[in-house]
Amino acid sequence: MKKLLSFITGLAFLLITLSAQAQSNDFKAAKSLEIQLSILRELSMLYVDSIQVDKLVKIGIDAMLESLDPYTVYIPEEDDENLELLTTGSYGGIGALIKKTEKSIIISEQYENSPAALNGLVAGDTIVKVDNIPTENLKVEEVSAKMKGKPGTDVKFVVNKLKGPQGVELTITRQRIHFSDVEYSGMISDSTGYIRITGFTLGGAKDVRKALLDLKASGKLKRLIIDLRGNGGGILDEAVEVVSLFVPKSTLVVYSKGKIPQMDMKYYTKEEPVDTQLPLVVLVNSASASSSEIVTGALQDLDRATIIGTRTFGKGLVQSIRDVGFNDKIKLTTAKYYIPSGRCVQAIDYSHRNPDGSVGQIPDSLIKAFKTVNKGRIVYDGGGITPDIPLVPEQYSRAAVSLVYNDILHTYSVNYYKNHDKISDPTNFSLTDQEYADFVKFASDKSFDQRTATEVEFDQVVALSKREGLYDNMKETIDALEKKVKLSKAEVLMKNSKEIKSLLEEEICARYYYQKGRVASIIRNDKMLQNAEKAKLVN
């Protein structure tokens, strides 16, 4: 009896304590909101300059959410279109990208079979007016907003054609523009198939299924490479469907654990597989995140695929979209993902990451070992998926990166397209030595950072010698070394001709064959892909 009374007393004390804590939290929240409202009121009435209270509130909300994690964000009503694009891969518009030059807005890329392409718009066309409004003084965002809109509605343009007359008037009907999750698929050798998946949007798994069936229909498919490099994720259910193509029905792919029981979910494959025996490679890098990591980790844990590349990003958090009133929303983290072995792919913390946001160095003491489901192979948590076969991606030279960043490759590709009616197939197209020499002459007159990594280090040594008072004593040596270290733009372009030429060919192929042409060109020089094709599989 005394034990029962003691238990009841303890339970009552616990309930009272929890109730008091809840009341305390509610009081603190109410107090904080009242203080915030008072501060906004004082600012609105007395601050020396005029202020926009709604902008201040948004800044406060963004800062508050950013302190939690990088993925919990506020989505105002005007950003609904961006949310739709992220979740469905679709938006209403004409299907073209634009950019601002010094004096005008030009088309930088048009999508295959889009209203823009079907109405003859090409990269390099200048948009003079949009809906009768001159674009000269408009920002790119303003012109882009006018190009987007409800499918079935019209938008008017006045365009100066790259290849043709000036002042052409066009009326283009907006359509639902959809980006397939499968950017490219095909056979890259006599027996190896390749599917490049760029996202996991609504219905995207069906695109992957169709690509797989088409490859199998060729009768040649003996090995499949799924490329998830750069794939930042998307809808979890679509990722589960992709896994279901390769494993038996009713297989556990991933489960989530949250603060409340409603967030605890288990995700099993629901469809019959297409092929459970086909040798499978998944190619990943540090930008493969979220749903990409679910696919990668599940196929690794189920001993179904060999993972090749670099460690993935390390995002194992579940986000849910919640309405917060006035058509605004919040995307907030509500749970963590766990893959079949029981490990979580989420990086241990958000602060110690690489410059690209991916997982940084994790102490061995914080990493736990797990076993794969079927073969009992050892795999580890700690953030991201560690490949079975590590492959370090090629590093581009500073000059190549600068040429891309400064749009010099794109600009030259537009000029090339203007002067050449057609080129060969992207799998065979190659610039001649004379054509590359023409590019070197073109690029040498442009502004870009041609310094080599050696020259950057050299400049730092010179600066340090001046600060330490050693420069005068070293000047003769420094001058002699400078002549060897510092190269002209033309010399740098020729020194790095192999990588720059391949990047330029990719850009030119995109002018004639759209994005599929770009990827087809990339494949020819993709060393990671070539190594993955030859690698000995662990499964």
- Helix content range: 40-55%
Give the oligomer, counting copies of the same chain as homo and different chains as hetero. single chain
Q: Please tally the β strands and state the result.
A: 21
Q: Calculate the mean pLDDT score and round it.
A: 89
Number of domains: 4
Could you list the spans in which at least 5 consecutive residues all have pLDDT below 50? Answer: 1-15
Strand-residue proportion? 15-25%
Architecture per CATH nomenclature, i.e. the level-2 architecture of the largest domain: Alpha-Beta Complex
- Termini Cα gap: 62 Å
Number of helices: 16
Query: Can you tell me the CATH class of the largest domain?
Result: Alpha Beta
CATH topology descriptor of the largest domain: 2-enoyl-CoA Hydratase, Chain A, domain 1
Fourth-level CATH superfamily of the largest domain: 2-enoyl-CoA Hydratase, Chain A, domain 1
Shape: globular
Give Rg in angstroms: 28 Å
Main beta-sheet annotation: 6 strands, antiparallel
Structural class: alpha+beta
